[in-house]
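Team,

Forwarding the record for the chain on the shared tracking sheet. I've put the sequence and predicted structure together so nobody has to dig through attachments.
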Amino acid sequence: MLIIPVKDENIERALKRYKNKFRKVQITKELRKRRYYTKPTTANREEMLKAEYRNNKLRDMDA
């Protein structure tokens, strides 16, 4: 989660700083993701496992 402290500045400037930080974080995520090649089947399997984990977590919260 990105936190932008606003000290005696207008909200437009704070939004601009937030957008720049967000853009940089997205770039670093993409670089980390592209560091190694993952086969499409492996990527799909990881997505399915993550989705299953999320569903189980939500189901446990409801119960």
